[in-house]
TrEMBL record, chain A:
InterPro entries: MetI-like, MetI-like_sf. This is Spermidine/putrescine transport system permease protein. The chain crosses the membrane at residues 7-27, 59-89, 101-125, 145-173, 194-217, 250-271. It is found in: Cell membrane. It is a multi-pass membrane protein. The keyword Cell membrane applies. It holds the Pfam family BPD_transp_1. It comes from Ancylobacter vacuolatus. Keywords: Cell membrane, Membrane, Transmembrane, Transmembrane helix, Transport. Residues 64-271 form the ABC transmembrane type-1 domain. Belongs to the binding-protein-dependent transport system permease family. CysTW subfamily.
Automatic annotation (TrEMBL), chain B:
Keywords: ATP-binding, Cell membrane, Membrane, Nucleotide-binding, Translocase, Transport. The gene is potA. Its EC number is 7.6.2.11. Pfam families: ABC_tran, TOBE_2. Gene3D superfamilies: 2.40.50.100, P-loop containing nucleotide triphosphate hydrolases (3.40.50.300). This is Spermidine/putrescine import ATP-binding protein PotA.
């Protein structure tokens, strides 16, 4: 095997180095998670399982559930908002429309997460763009509370994840065989029926992978919930930050990280199983 | 194989034209297609045949002209309201549905009762010999089976016209021959008016009632297969259908019942004196099939015997095509049964050829 692929090991080397370092870091996290917290010190004490028993309190479970809920909402809304954009992007007849849509949907990727989150704070705050506008139009008396709410966090996360979702969906839509759509029309399907019965089912794999990717991505979101949630919306990363860098309880932060990792992996496996079954039933692949 | 152009037209194209920007895809095509006729649009790729089919199906809008089906102008009718069945080159089967659902799709769009749909689909499955495949996914089918599903799906809606867009081109040679027979049978059983698009003249000749030869968006000739082969209307048709030798431009001389071609460097060749509308003294080009050229017998020296040198033999099993370089005529192909000619006249050896110009097609040269 090595003779037939002489560069195989050489090419594999960077991946191996990265994997080894990552594994070492994870082991370090694991190691920290079973150590005693020494208040007032960054040094850790002896072996203990107390961190894991502490996890078993409703407040931590709620953060985990909230993270899951926000991620799922983000993935679903991202899908709903991205599909029409991706569809227009792929099917636009005019080149300039396509280029415009591509640049509009991709450029957010080039601005940092902090910059985008900050822009959303300007938009959503009590004196922000939306509230000022609504008040000028005399539609509301008191400012709407969007900042520091789940809604605000989800809005910002959806916008944050849309470029990726659009790219994934656009790929799926561009792979739909146009002849299948023509054949359906030829057999009597109106444009609406063609979309619901042919185009949408054929792009289902893209939709599912979009949901999985955005879900996984949002599970680890930090700065958006940190800044827009302002401590009132806690996702798992924010909880880790709070414990590790405010309370300086590194062992417990490590335990929470482990739990977050396990939860993320677990939900991904679950989603993969669900989407796999759905795809099989619809036999799209 | 009964319909002719005299039967009431199922489809009528009236000066149909399609322009793509400044390019003309289809140039003012007028055609009448009889009820139950099997009509083939034949031509090289880019000749406009698929564009024409696309306009009949409604996927393309004509720049000008009118498309009439069963007496109704459908030029501006949306594709899904046309009741025209179509089989795509790629089959375009729905990959997320099984065979039954693929075939049932058109009937479901027509909102037929469930029981009726099931019965119709069963019948189509039986007719296309797809028994036992109803629950299969289309990706599990062979090319020929996919082809039959595509046909069943198009036929089951009882369309006013059946359009076939190069449906055999994706199949291998043996399967193609078999599907030709099945297409023919299907046409006989259903009696559907069929428009078949192909670039394969063999398919066109064997399947069609009439063939429309197209080139560069224009109709070159509309005729039955036999007529087309025997009396092509112009040089393009002559060389597109089957193999043919195009002789150099000659002067046509006619005196009474005798006609001759005068070729510079060759001399006089006796030509058929059919009333072809050719004028004495005009420039003509003769087209002669390889089967109408044969090696001359040893003592034969008629007016139409020419001599040349064997350039190549192409052995085809049942027959051999021999290319002969003839002075003044260029390369002439002869087609003889068997392989004797290969040993009798090896490459490079001289050979005398007898041109059966009585079978030649004479066309005015421009």
């Amino acid at each position: 095997m090595i003779q037939r692929r002489p560069f195989f090991l050489t090419f594999l080397a960077p991946a191996v180095v990265t994997a080894v370092i990552l594994a070492a870091a994870l082991f370090e996290v694991l190691q920290y998670s079973v150590r005693e917290f020494v208040p007032g010190s960054l040094n850790v004490g002896g072996f203990t399982l107390e961190n894991f028993t502490r996890i078993n309190r409703p407040i931590y479970w709620w953060v985990l559930l909230d993270t899951f809920y926000i991620s799922l909402l983000t993935a679903i809304f991202s899908l709903l908002l991205s599909y029409p954009v991706a569809f227009a992007l792929v099917r636009a007849k005019r080149d300039w429309v396509r280029s415009l849509l591509v640049s509009l949907s991709i450029t957010p990727l080039f601005t940092g997460e902090i910059v985008r989150t900050f822009s959303w704070m300007l938009m959503l705050g009590s004196d922000g763009f939306i509230n000022s506008l609504l008040r000028k139009l005399s539609l509301i008396d008191l400012p709407l509370l969007i900042m520091y709410t789940r809604l605000g966090v989800v809005v910002a996360l959806v916008q944050f994840s849309m470029p990726v979702m659009i790219i994934l969906l656009a790929t799926a839509i561009s792979h739909v065989d146009r002849d299948c759509e023509k054949a359906a029309a030829n057999l009597g399907a109106s444009p609406g029926a063609v979309f619901w019965r042919i185009t949408l089912p054929l792009t289902l794999p893209g939709m599912l992978s979009g949901i999985v990717v955005v879900f996984a991505w949002t599970m680890s979101a930090f700065s958006t919930p940190q800044l827009i949630g302002g401590g009132k919306v806690l996702m798992i990363s924010n909880l880790v930050y709070l414990q590790g860098f405010s309370v300086l309880n590194l062992p417990f932060a490590a335990t929470l990280s482990l739990i977050a990792l396990i939860a993320a992996l677990g939900s991904l496996v679950l989603m993969k199983a669900l989407t796999g079954r759905l795809e099989k039933r619809l036999a799209v692949r | 194989m009964t319909a002719t152009s005299q039967a009431p037209a199922a489809v009528e194209l009236v000066r149909v034209r399609k322009e793509f920007g400044s390019a003309v895809g289809v140039a003012d095509v007028s055609l009448k297609i009889g009820q139950g006729e099997f009509l083939t649009l034949l031509g090289p790729s880019g000749c406009g045949k698929s564009t024409l089919l696309g306009m009949i199906a409604g996927f393309l809008t004509p720049t000008a002209g009118k498309i009439v089906v069963d007496g109704v102008d459908i030029t501006d009718v949306e594709p899904y309201r046309r009741d025209i069945g179509m089989v795509f080159q790629s089959y375009a089967l729905f990959p997320h549905m099984n065979v039954f659902d693929n075939i049932a799709f058109g009937l479901r769009m027509r909102k037929l009762p469930k029981a009726e749909i099931a019965a119709e689909v069963r019948r189509a499955i039986e007719m296309m010999k797809l028994d036992g495949f109803a629950e299969r996914r289309v990706s599990q089918l062979s090319g020929g089976q996919q082809q039959r599903v595509a046909l069943a799906r198009a036929v089951v809606i009882r369309p006013k016209v059946l359009l076939l867009d190069e449906p055999l081109s994706a199949l291998d040679k043996n399967l193609r021959a078999q599907m030709q027979v099945e297409l023919s049978e299907l046409h006989r059983k259903t009696g559907l008016t069929t428009i078949f698009v192909t670039h394969d003249q063999g398919e066109a000749l064997s399947l069609s009632d009439r063939i429309v030869v197209m080139n560069r968006g224009e109709v070159q000739q509309v005729a039955s297969p036999i007529e087309l082969y025997r009396t092509p209307a112009n040089g393009f048709v002559a060389s597109f259908i089957g193999e043919i030798n195009a002789l150099p431009v000659a002067r046509y001389e006619r005196t009474g019942n005798e006609a001759a071609l005068v070729l510079p460097g060759v001399g006089r060749l006796a030509a058929p004196a059919r009333d072809s509308g050719l004028i004495h003294g005009s420039a003509v080009r003769a087209f002669l099939r390889p089967e109408h050229v044969r090696p001359a017998l040893p003592d034969e020296a008629g007016p139409n015997t020419v001599s040349g040198v064997v350039a190549a033999h192409i052995y085809q099993g049942s027959h051999t095509i021999t290319r002969v370089e003839v002075d003044g005529l260029g390369l002439i192909e002869t087609r003889v049964t068997g392989a004797d000619i290969v040993s009798a006249h090896p490459v490079g050896a001289p050979i005398a050829l007898m041109l059966d110009l009585g079978e030649a097609v004479l066309l005015a040269a421009h």
